[in-house]
Amino acid sequence: xxxxxxxxxxxxxxxxxxxxxxxxxxxxxxxxxxxxxxxxxxxxxxxxxxxxxxxxxxxxxxxxxxxxxxxxxxxxxxxxxxxxxxxxxxxxxxxxxxxxxxxxxxxxxxxxxxxxxxxxxxxxxxxxxxxxxxxxxxxxxxxxxxxxxxxxxxxxxxxxxxxxxxxxxxxxxxxxxxxxxxxxxxxxxxxxxxxxxxxxxxxxxxxxxxxxxxxxxxxxxxxxxxxxxxxxxxxxxxxxxxxxxxxxxxxxxxxxxxxxxxxxxxxxxxxxxxxxxx
Length: 278
Hints:
Elements: H1 8-22, H2 44-51, H3 55-62, H4 71-80, H5 85-94, H6 112-120, E1 126-130, E2 135-138, H7 140-145, H8 159-165, H9 176-193, H10 198-210, H11 212-218, E3 228-235, E4 239-248, E5 256-263, H12 266-277
Antiparallel strand pairs: 1-2, 1-5, 3-4, 4-5
Helix pairs in contact: 2-3, 2-4, 4-5, 5-9, 10-11
């Protein structure tokens, strides 16, 4: 199974069908029907009514027949399908109703001022990534917490690759499935926002063919961009470490993401201090 370069028309069709089938008509206060529903979720007629478009238009969209909905229609569909903010952004990206974020292409190297900032953030573990999770820069604390990135070839300096493929990092997160699921939801949003990024497409294809868990979760079409959260990591030498993470996007370099970890409790702070002391 491979993931081709983004075919936005077909992905738009699949995403609309997927989200329509997820909705519970009762939760939307729609009238009950006498005949049983043969398919899950809403009917196309119901989506058309909620979005104030024709049923034929919904049919053609879901069949991938080359339509490019306007921004107004995309907004109406977002509301009709009760999309989350991240899902709404994803739909706008698929409909090509947003300008490309970086005319020069995806970031592949760290911007020097941001590299210095990563170092200056010590003793907080910090790293710089791009939209596809490539690790572009890191400080000693982040390397001490995760692993020495200098020992890896550049192609493996990717946090999703490490989580899926690296034998040590695979067992590093206590709630691994949640971490993987959230990472995949981010990658799907990045995939739609950067259809020109062949390296990202190839990376997703590698994961889809090489990891059954990734393939299963990718097919669910979850979309979410996490700007902050919590992770619990297990280190055999210092025990469990719980961190809060924050992801910051520089205004001048929006394709680069600064990730900062902070200890969530005193026990974790003590464990991080012991790692830093080494």
